[in-house]
Amino acid sequence: MSRPQRNAILFLMLGVLLLFNSCTRTKNSVVIAQQYGLAYAPVQIMKDLELLEKEMPEYTVKWVQLSNTAAIREAALAGDMDAGFIGIPPFLISRDQGMPWKLLCGLCQAPSGLVVPAGRYDSLNSIPEDARIALPQPGSIQHILLGMALKREVGQADFLDDHLISLKHPDGLNALLSGSVDGHFTSPPYLFQESDLPGFEVLLSGEAAMGLPFTFIASVVTEKAVATNPLFLQALKTALEKSILYMKENPEESLLLLSESYDLEKELLRDYLGRSGLIFETELRGVEQFSAFMVEERYLKNPEDMGGLVF
């Protein structure tokens, strides 16, 4: 097992230590965790328009902004969160380690890719084993996609694992621009910002790595939240569907709301949201393919079928 594989598992074990550290929660309230980035646009719209509140008028909805999947996982373990939005691979790893949550539905497909200095490499085969590649963390969707492509093209999924550098997307962008890393596997808007700059190019896309369209971000709900309020699942899914529909039927109003929330110029945001590959939908795609690869590469020891993973 490679160092990033061990780190991904240890990350989960650390979270388990918080399992019994639950805090007191307000009765008749639900807590939703969101992250940063364009992939979460329907969640921001749902929040701004209070769509979930309208589906659950007898409940108070609280929103928390967390920086990454690990923070969401720890919040759920501590009883401080009922639902959140994460990539499928980190969900599968956490579920494999006994995390008491399941998938509800998809949120989006989104472009992702490995950005490198233009002309430095012509394929994954030309990247040396000691190349420094930045991505969010071991076990992230970016890490698993890179492993899928390396397994197919180089014959070794963990070929670059010993020199991976865990960085948040903004820090990864700065590291790539400064030359302190040799590549950055990222997602919008950072993928667009980097690939738009002269001197950089996308060497590998997430879809090419996976070989088919896949859900980039999915919604997860804790089993405790469902047991406490069985109506929560349908309320959350309905609110997400209404949010996605609102974005389709009211593009200008959506741009205005999102440009304020993300502090991006409206026309720049229009350009980003209009680019190919960013699709908001509740369908789940690619769960079984991610699971099969992660079992083969020993990220998962106790794989479950779709019936065990999805509410």
General description of the model:
With 311 residues, the chain is of the alpha/beta class. The protein folds into 2 domains: 29-110 and 216-305, Periplasmic binding protein-like II (D-Maltodextrin-Binding Protein, domain 2), CATH 3.40.190.10; 113-210, D-Maltodextrin-Binding Protein, domain 2. The chain is built from 15 helices and 11 strands. The protein has helices at 3-16, 41-48, 51-55, 69-77, 88-96, 141-153, 169-178, 190-196, 206-210, 223-228, 232-249, 251-262, 266-273, 287-296, 306-309; strands spanning 29-34, 60-65, 83-86, 101-109, 113-117, 133-135, 164-166, 183-186, 200-205, 217-222, 279-280. Helix 2 (41-48) crosses helix 11 (232-249). The radius of gyration is 19 Å and the shape is globular. The two termini are 31 Å apart. It comes from Oceanispirochaeta crateris. It holds the Pfam family NMT1_2. This is ABC transporter substrate-binding protein.
Helix/strand-derived class?
Answer: alpha/beta
Shape: globular
How many domains? The number is 2
DSSP, total strands = 11
